[in-house]
Design brief:
4-stranded mixed beta sheet; Rossmann fold; 270 residues; alpha+beta; elongated; single chain; 2 domains; 7 helices
Length: 270
C-alpha cells in the first residue's frame, strides 16, 4: 500500500532522463515547461485526463495517443475490460492524432489483435502494451519521414468504454454463464468479480462454464473441483475464490476454511 514509481519513471531515472509530473496541464507554468524542449510531437499513453487544446498545440506535428482498441469502437477509459465483457473476438491498438474530442481524432495506424478464449484484462493489457509500443515507434518514424497518412474515424461503429464502476463488479446470477465467465476475466486483476454469501463478500477470480441447472445463484455442487453455481442460463464453476480480507485460494483450499453446501444461494454483491 505504499506509493511507488511506475515502470516508465523508473527507467527514465536509470537512463538519466528528466521526469516532469505536473498535477495537470491547464496552468501556464506547466504548459511552458512542456513546450520548452520544442518537441516535434507528443506521445500520450495511459493518461487519465483530457489534454487541453493548448497542450495539443505545443508540438508542430501534434499529440498522438496509443489507444487500446480499434477505434471508433470502445472510445474512453476502459476499452480492454469492455471488449472482454462484450465478448469481442478481436481488439487492437490505434495510433490516433488527438483533437478536442474524446478519442475522436484521425487515425494514423490500426493494428488488430485476436482475443484468446481465456484472456483476462491483465494478459490482454500486456499484449496490447507491447503491440502499442511497437506501433508508436513505427508511427513516429512515419511522421519523421513525412509519410504519415491520416484517416478520419468512421461515423458508424462508435461505442463508449466507460470506466468500470464498483456496482458492475457484482455478479448478477440471472445472466447467462457465458456473460458471467466473461465478467470474471474482464474484472481480473481489478477490481475482481464479487458475489455475496451469508452476508459476506466473496470474490471469484477464476471460473468456467459447466453443465448444470437450478435457480440463479443456487449452489449445485461444492467440492475440490470448484463451486458450481446456477446462472440464468447454464452454470458457473468457480475454481479460485477469496473471502474479504483473505487470500486468493484454489477451490479445494478455500472450502476447507469456508465450507459451502449444496443448496445454498449466492447473491449479487452491492
Amino acid at each position: 500500500m505504499r506509493q511507488s514509481a511506475g515502470a516508465v519513471k523508473q527507467l527514465a531515472i536509470v537512463r538519466g532522463l528528466e521526469v516532469f509530473q505536473p498535477q495537470g496541464l491547464n496552468d501556464e507554468s506547466a504548459l511552458s515547461r512542456l513546450a520548452a524542449p520544442r518537441p516535434d510531437a507528443l506521445v500520450v499513453a495511459a493518461y487519465g485526463l483530457i489534454l487541453p487544446a493548448r497542450a495539443l498545440e505545443v508540438a508542430p506535428l501534434g499529440a498522438f495517443n496509443i489507444h487500446a482498441s480499434l477505434l471508433p469502437r470502445w472510445r474512453g477509459a476502459a476499452p480492454i475490460q469492455r471488449a472482454l465483457l462484450a465478448g469481442d473476438r478481436e481488439t487492437g491498438i490505434t495510433i490516433m492524432k488527438m483533437d478536442a474530442g474524446l478519442d475522436t481524432g484521425p487515425i494514423l495506424a490500426s493494428h488488430p489483435l485476436a482475443i484468446a478464449p481465456e484472456e483476462d484484462a491483465q494478459s490482454l493489457h500486456d499484449r496490447l502494451a507491447a503491440l502499442g509500443a511497437e506501433a508508436m515507434v513505427a508511427a513516429l518514424a512515419q511522421l519523421a519521414a513525412g509519410r504519415a497518412n491520416f484517416q478520419a474515424q468512421p461515423e458508424t461503429g462508435a461505442s463508449y468504454a466507460r470506466k468500470i464502476g464498483k456496482h458492475e463488479s457484482g455478479l448478477d446470477w440471472s445472466k447467462s454463464c457465458a456473460e458471467l465467465e466473461r465478467a470474471v476475466r474482464a474484472l481480473r486483476p481489478a477490481p475482481g468479480a464479487r458475489a455475496e454469501l451469508r452476508g459476506e463478500t466473496i470474490k471469484i477470480w477464476r471460473a468456467r462454464c459447466d453443465a448444470g441447472k437450478g435457480s440463479p445463484g443456487e449452489v449445485l455442487q461444492s467440492g475440490a473441483a470448484g463451486v458450481l453455481i446456477a446462472c440464468g442460463e447454464g452454470a458457473l464453476l468457480a475454481t479460485e475464490l477469496q473471502r474479504a480480507g483473505g487470500t486468493r485460494l484454489a477451490a479445494a483450499d478455500f472450502l476447507r476454511g469456508f465450507p459451502v453446501a449444496r443448496g445454498e444461494s449466492l447473491g449479487t454483491a452491492r
